[in-house]
Design brief:
Layout: H1 6-16, E1 19-22, H2 27-36, E2 41-43, H3 45-51, H4 62-76, E3 80-83, H5 91-103, E4 108-112, H6 131-149, E5 154-159, H7 167-180, E6 184-187, H8 193-207, E7 212-216, H9 228-233, E8 238-241, H10 244-263, H11 276-282
Parallel strand pairs: 1-8, 2-3, 3-4, 4-5, 5-6, 6-7, 7-8
Helix pairs in contact: 2-4, 5-6, 6-7, 7-8
Length: 296
């Protein structure tokens, strides 16, 4: 059965309005995102890494990431934009990454311009690869997307230049990445609403063509908390909430374990748990009847 490419679906959604994309670090969270009514979701490299018990410094393999992407696509049934860190290598691996993410069912991916090993975009001490090298990687990614999906798969270029080389350098890099074939630009580490608004305005004036813009609404970083509606006013097409669900979940887990350790009972926090029935409903399972594996 041939289905419409999720990259085209995500483009349609963005053409209609600003799309919120909460992060899913496994298929169950992805199911909840879809059930809540969101129309897209996101796979974060940071969340994927820490969920595997390691920091977000590029330690996991391409196979690990694509497995997570595949599970989130399956769990949600939504168009999924996925983090590909620095692309897992040079040109050959950039091409393989695009093809493997496409085979995993992603709508698109983003690749950043940091030196490996990368760092979280909201930490200091980052180093960038040269502009021409970064633009060359984007061209390889765009060519691979053309070959494996007739260009439907979305290539997003993330630049961390704001915190390393300055705001104007971030604009220069973004324009070069768009020219190299990126359909979407992700300016990481902007520090105010004014910066987001100025970046969108100046980039679109400069490139004079359709370019999708991604905003990262992560918590406890360099970006203040900005509502979705404000991002829409500033011209952003998709807003990711990359680690939100994981942070909420782990805060609850830590609290529950502390109470269990202190009291030896789950009784004090029983009312804070998802019930067995709610879990079965989320995975659409009725005990005693065969479970129909969904077609995605």
């Amino acid at each position: 059965m041939k289905t419409r490419h999720p990259g085209l679906t995500l483009r349609d959604l963005m053409d209609r309005g600003t799309v919120p994309a909460p992060g899913a670090f496994n298929a169950l969270v992805a199911r909840q995102i879809a059930r809540t009514g969101f129309e897209a979701c996101y796979v974060s490299g940071g969340a994927t890494s820490v969920a595997a018990g390691v920091p977000d410094v590029g330690l996991l393999t391409l196979d690990h990431f694509t497995r997570t992407v595949r599970e989130v696509v399956f769990g949600s049934g939504l168009p999924v934009l996925a983090d590909a860190d620095t692309g897992f290598g040079e040109e050959e691996m950039i091409r393989r990454t695009v093809i493997e993410y496409n085979h995993a069912g992603a709508a698109g991916l983003h690749i950043e311009d940091q030196v490996f090993p990368k760092r979280c975009g909201h930490l200091d001490g980052k180093t960038l690869i040269p502009l021409d090298q970064a633009a060359g990687r984007i061209k390889w990614a765009a060519d691979a997307a053309q070959d494996c999906s007739d260009g439907a798969f979305i290539i997003c270029a993330r630049t961390d230049a704001r915190g390393v080389e300055g705001f104007d350098a971030a604009l220069d890099r973004a324009a070069a990445y768009h020219e190299a074939g990126a359909a979407m630009i992700f300016p990481e580490g902007l520090t105010s609403e004014n910066e987001f608004a100025e970046f969108a305005s100046r980039l679109r004036e400069r490139v004079q063509s359709r370019v999708y813009l991604l905003a990262n609404m992560t918590e406890f970083g360099k970006t203040p908390i900005i509502p979705l509606a404000r991002f829409a006013e500033m011209g952003y097409d998709i807003v990711i909430f990359p680690v939100t669900t994981l942070r909420v979940a782990m805060h609850a887990v830590a609290h529950a374990l502390a109470v269990l350790k202190d009291t030896g009972s789950v009784e004090p926090f029983l009312d804070q748990m998802q019930t067995r029935q709610a879990l079965y409903e989320l995975v659409e399972y009725t005990p005693g009847t065969p479970w129909e594996y969904p077609v995605r």
